[in-house]
């Protein structure tokens, strides 16, 4: 017999998060299907000590993997439409920005270690801009406090994610025109009011080939994760690389994601990110909280300066520069790129950063202990 009370406690928060996504999308918020659920999940997580928050345990692993795969496939189009020269230019830039952000992360980790008493391994892994899921795996290898690492990484994810829409709306104006080949909003037409009911249903449902591509990309990610357990973001990077390579050879292969798949992916990822900010976590780590936020501010300032330099040198437009250098929130960035027709260099820089951090991260805590001994 179904427990009505338990079912209601499970479904209502998720429905509220989905409603938040629908409202944000309707209001024209960039990547509204992700930002809306994230904001609602944060609010619900802070209510009644987190008891009203959505239960995100079911997002591990397959719904979360579905969300990551869909976001990765969204990023295929901009990469496939970019010239090889443009993509190649992103490699050295990505390495420079990665090194700069890692140096700032080291400074932030020292602040966290000395002022808040967080052990060296935990402070380093908690501040690295490599993504929450990847840093959790690194934390296990380095013997760091996994709970603190997740808290710190998701706090930065929230700050970055909630700042991106404001930056997009601020910069994406007449002075920073979209490229001529910019795509319409994800899954949408240039004039939605001109669409009939049949077109709307087709837009949301997609066709069998799109769903087959999602299934194939998820199978690829599962195979990579099994064969290479330490491969960074196995449900994101392999899908982007394989999809972009295929689309460059056969342009018709570039996926056109069903709007339903995009909405579900964003709701799952946004809700999972927002549900980690409970009052219990904030209370437990209240001593370190100011220093974690200071570290996030240092990273944002560094990446904003990097973005300004890219913009001033004419490498990319203002919005694309900011997206390319954002310290994390890759799924949200990929969604923005697909939604507004951004440059493929943005995706390349994030992929290179994730791989570089993944390769370097396991040895960094020990290196930091040698270079900066406790006083």
Describe the structure.
The protein has 375 residues and is mostly helical. It is built from 18 helices and no strands. The chain has helices spanning 4-26, 32-46, 62-74, 76-81, 84-116, 120-127, 132-142, 146-171, 197-205, 208-227, 237-249, 259-274, 279-284, 289-312, 318-325, 330-340, 344-360, 364-371. The longest helix has 33 residues, at 84-116. Mean pLDDT is 79; it is low at 174-194.
Summary tags:
single chain, 375 residues, mainly alpha, 18 helices, 71% helix, transmembrane, Membrane AbrB-like protein, transmembrane helix, AbrB_fam
What layout of secondary structure does this protein have?
Layout: H1 4-26, H2 32-46, H3 62-74, H4 76-81, H5 84-116, H6 120-127, H7 132-142, H8 146-171, H9 197-205, H10 208-227, H11 237-249, H12 259-274, H13 279-284, H14 289-312, H15 318-325, H16 330-340, H17 344-360, H18 364-371
Structural class: mainly alpha
Main sheet overview: none
Rg over alpha carbons: 20 Å
β-sheet strand percentage: under 5%
- So what's the overall shape? globular
How many individual β-strands?
0
User: Could you tell me the mean pLDDT?
Assistant: 79
Assembly state (oligomeric): single chain
- The low-confidence runs, each spanning 5 or more residues with pLDDT under 50, are 174-194
The helix/strand order is: HHHHHHHHHHHHHHHHHH
Roughly how much helix do the residues carry, as a percent range? over 70%
State the separation between the terminal residues, measured CA to CA.
61 Å
Number of helices: 18
Transmembrane segments: 34-54, 66-83, 89-112, 154-171, 208-228, 235-254, 260-279, 291-313, 341-361
InterPro entries: AbrB_dup, AbrB_fam
Keywords: Membrane, Transmembrane, Transmembrane helix
Protein name: Membrane AbrB-like protein
């Amino acid at each position: 017999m179904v427990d009505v009370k338990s079912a209601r406690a499970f479904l209502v928060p998720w429905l509220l998060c989905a409603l938040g996504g629908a409202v944000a999308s309707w209001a024209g918020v960039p990547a509204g299907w992700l930002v809306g659920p994230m904001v609602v999940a944060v609010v619900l997580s802070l209510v009644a000590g987190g008891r009203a928050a959505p239960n995100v345990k079911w997002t591990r692993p397959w719904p979360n993997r579905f969300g990551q795969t869909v976001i990765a496939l969204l990023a295929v189009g901009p990469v496939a439409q970019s010239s090889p020269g443009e993509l190649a230019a992103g490699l050295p830039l990505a390495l420079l920005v990665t090194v700069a952000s890692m140096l700032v992360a080291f400074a932030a980790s020292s602040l966290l270690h000395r002022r808040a008493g967080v052990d060296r391994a935990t402070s380093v892994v908690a501040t690295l801009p490599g993504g929450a899921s990847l840093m959790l795996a690194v934390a296990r290898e380095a013997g760091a406090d996994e709970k603190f690492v997740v808290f710190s990484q998701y706090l930065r994810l929230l700050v970055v994610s909630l700042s991106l829409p404001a930056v997009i709306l601020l910069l994406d104006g007449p002075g920073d025109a979209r490229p001529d080949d910019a795509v319409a909003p994800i899954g949408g037409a240039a004039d939605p009011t001109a669409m009939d009911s049949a077109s709307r249903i087709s837009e949301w449902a997609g066709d069998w080939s799109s769903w087959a591509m999602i299934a194939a990309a998820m199978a690829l990610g599962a195979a990579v994760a099994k064969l290479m357990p330490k491969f960074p973001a196995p449900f994101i990077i392999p899908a982007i690389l394989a999809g972009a390579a295929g689309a460059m050879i056969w342009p018709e292969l570039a996926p056109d994601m069903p709007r339903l798949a995009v909405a579900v992916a964003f709701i799952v990822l946004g809700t999972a990110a927002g549900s980690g900010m409970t009052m219990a976590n904030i209370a437990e780590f209240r001593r370190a909280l100011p220093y974690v936020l200071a570290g996030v501010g240092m990273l944002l300032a560094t990446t904003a300066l990097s973005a300004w330099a890219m913009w001033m040198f004419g490498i990319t437009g203002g919005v694309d520069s900011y997206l390319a250098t954002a310290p994390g929130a890759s799924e949200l960035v990929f969604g923005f790129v697909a939604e507004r027709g951004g440059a493929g260099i943005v995706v390349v820089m994030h992929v290179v950063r994730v791989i570089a951090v993944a390769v370097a991260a396991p040895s960094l805590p020990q290196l930091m202990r040698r270079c900066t001994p406790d006083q």
